[in-house]
Design a protein that fits this description.
The chain is of the alpha/beta class. Helix content is 32%, strand content 15%. Helix 2 crosses helix 3.
Length: 202
C-alpha cells in the first residue's frame, strides 16, 4: 500500500498503561510510513467506567481528525474494550475502517475479580457491560475490517480464549507474555500486515 493512501492509526492502551506503552509500535509503524496517534486514558487504573474512557477516545478523534478522514484503530487489553464501546455505542463505526483488537478480555477475565474498581468489575466474565457489547457485536462491527489477535499463553486475560470475538479475522500468536503483545517483533509485523490489507467490500 502506498504510504500516501494509508489511514492514520490511533493506538489505545490497556489498564495501568499510558501512551508510552506503544513507543516501540509507534516507531515501527512510523518508520514504515504510517502517521500514528495515541492518547493516555485517565484514570488508567480501573477507577473510571469504561464508557467514560471510550468518550475520551471519541473526543480525541473529533478533535484531531478531519470529519471526512477515515482512520484505523488498535485497542490493546482494556483498550480493546474501550475501543469496542467507541465503535459500537459512540458512532466510531462511521469513522474507522480497520480495527485491530489485541489481547482484550472480550468475554471477561477472572483476574478482574481481584480488585473492586468499577472499570475492573466491568471486565469480569458476564458483566453487564460485556453482555451488552457482545449481544450485537456481529451486526455492529460487520461493516468494518476486524482483526482479533491473542496469545494462548496469556495470564492476564484468563482464560486466554476470552480474547476471541467470533468475528472478522482471528490470529493466534505464540507470544509468552501479555505485555509483549504490543512490543514483540511478531506482533509488530502482524499489525503492519493487517493495516496494509485492502479493505473488504461489503
Amino acid at each position: 500500500m502506498d504510504a500516501n493512501n494509508r489511514n492514520p492509526v490511533l493506538l489505545v492502551h490497556g489498564i495501568y498503561n499510558t501512551s508510552a506503552k506503544f513507543n516501540r509500535m509507534t516507531k515501527y509503524l512510523t518508520n514504515l510510513g504510517w502517521v500514528v496517534h495515541r492518547l493516555s486514558l485517565k484514570p488508567n487504573n480501573g477507577n473510571g467506567h469504561l464508557e467514560k474512557l471510550a468518550q475520551q477516545v471519541n473526543d480525541y478523534v473529533n478533535n484531531n481528525f478531519d470529519r471526512k478522514q477515515p482512520i484505523d484503530l488498535v485497542g490493546f487489553s482494556m483498550g480493546g474494550l474501550v475501543t469496542r464501546y467507541y465503535l459500537q455505542r459512540l458512532g466510531g463505526i462511521r469513522k474507522v475502517q480497520r480495527y485491530i483488537n489485541i489481547s482484550a478480555p472480550n468475554h471477561g477475565t477472572v483476574t478482574a475479580y481481584i480488585l473492586p474498581n468499577p472499570g475492573i468489575k466491568q471486565m469480569r466474565p458476564k458483566s453487564q457491560f460485556l453482555q451488552d457489547l457482545n449481544k450485537d457485536v456481529k451486526t455492529t462491527l460487520d461493516s468494518i475490517d476486524v482483526t482479533v489477535i491473542w496469545t494462548p499463553f496469556d495470564l492476564m486475560i484468563f482464560p486466554p480464549s476470552s480474547s476471541k470475538m467470533g468475528i472478522g479475522k482471528e490470529i493466534k500468536l505464540p507470544i509468552p507474555i501479555h505485555e509483549q503483545m504490543v512490543k514483540h517483533n511478531q506482533i509488530l509485523k502482524t499489525i503492519s500486515d493487517c493495516l496494509s490489507q485492502p479493505l473488504k467490500i461489503n
